[in-house]
Design a protein that fits this description.
Layout lengths: L7 H13 L16 H19 L3 E7 L3 H7 L5 E6 L3 E2 L5 E2 L7 E10 L10 H7 E11 L10 H6 L4 E6 L15 E6 L2 E7 L7 H13 L10 E3 L7 E2 L5 E6 L3 E8 L1
Parallel strand pairs: 1-10, 3-7, 4-13
Antiparallel strand pairs: 1-2, 5-6, 5-10, 5-11, 6-7, 8-9, 8-12, 12-13
Helix pairs in contact: 1-2
Bound molecules: hexanedioic acid and magnesium ion.
Magnesium ion binds next to strand 1, strand 5 and strand 6.
Length: 264
């Protein structure tokens, strides 16, 4: 499928097909350089609606992206982004993810917020986030941009649901007020070798700041975090590439460990 003279519907089908068939595609701004951020979120909505039907699944939560200053600088932006998690994206520590179903996956360590009560409003504060969060847990996110070579502009990646593919939640649930969320150390290893070390301070200086940003941004569109949502608060380090045969484990101070392995 080419993008020439494409409508929104064509773009959505183009991205969905890329995911379904696990092949990379040319970024949409190559043909639609005029795309705005708000149009990109509308495309994301359309894509998510189609995807929910096609996979016969439901929304499981929200993921934040571009939450590190380094990544924002790399992309020449100073805003984070958000996308949605679907229930079929949930993967498990005990079941390898299948490389053949993905394009060029990468994995990143994150802190998951498990939402205990609705959080919505343009003036949401860090205290509101803490109050509405039942537990935090260690998490891994598998990102798999549908775009060639993982290269895109801001609007491309928003339309592509912020590269979302899969996520894994560790089994230890921790009360959010029981630890210093702003300075959780993390070591991520692949096949026994340390690949990334970081602190949760890499997430917009504090994951609660990132959560506030997301809650306020969602509120501008009449949305929020819902009771039962899983929210990935943003990558704590650079993502690392994964291939069939790899296993990755991330250990977080006070939060425990989460791991994933990859099969053919
Ligand atoms: O979850 C993320 O931080 C990814 C956001 C999109 C950017 C990327 O795919 O690297
Ligand atoms: Mg992420």
């Amino acid at each position: 499928m080419t993008l020439k003279t494409s409508t929104d519907k064509d773009i959505i089908e183009y991205l969905l097909y890329a995911e379904r068939d696990a092949h990379e595609v040319i970024k949409i701004t190559d043909e639609h350089s005029e795309l705005t951020i708000s149009q990109a979120y509308e495309l994301q909505d359309g894509l998510l609606e189609r995807r929910l039907k096609e996979k016969n699944t439901k929304t499981a939560g929200i993921k934040l992206g571009l939450t590190s200053k380094a990544k924002q600088k790399m992309m020449g932006v100073n805003e984070s982004i958000y996308g949605y998690l679907h229930a079929d994206m949930l993967a498990y520590e005990w079941e390898p993810i299948r490389f053949s179903e993905l394009i060029h996956p990468k994995v990143e360590p994150e802190i998951a917020f498990l939402i205990g009560e609705d959080i919505q409003g343009e003036n949401i504060t860090e205290e509101d986030i803490l109050r509405g969060t039942k537990y935090v847990a260690p998490a891994l996110e598998i990102i798999d941009s549908r775009y060639k070579d993982f290269r895109f502009k801001l609007v491309d990646v928003i339309a592509d649901n912020c590269s979302s593919a899969k996520f894994i939640i560790g089994s230890k649930l921790v009360l959010p007020e029981s630890l210093d969320l702003g300075n959780i150390g993390m070591v991520m290893s692949k096949n026994g070798y340390v690949e990334q070390t970081s602190s949760s301070a890499a997430v917009l200086e504090h994951p609660l700041k990132a959560m506030v940003w997301a809650a306020r941004s969602l509120a501008k569109r009449g949305r929020g975090f819902k009771k039962g949502d899983i929210v990935l608060s943003g990558a704590m380090s650079e993502a690392i590439t994964i291939n069939a045969g790899d296993s990755v484990i991330a250990a977080f101070d006070g939060l425990g460990v989460v791991s994933i392995s990859v099969s053919e």
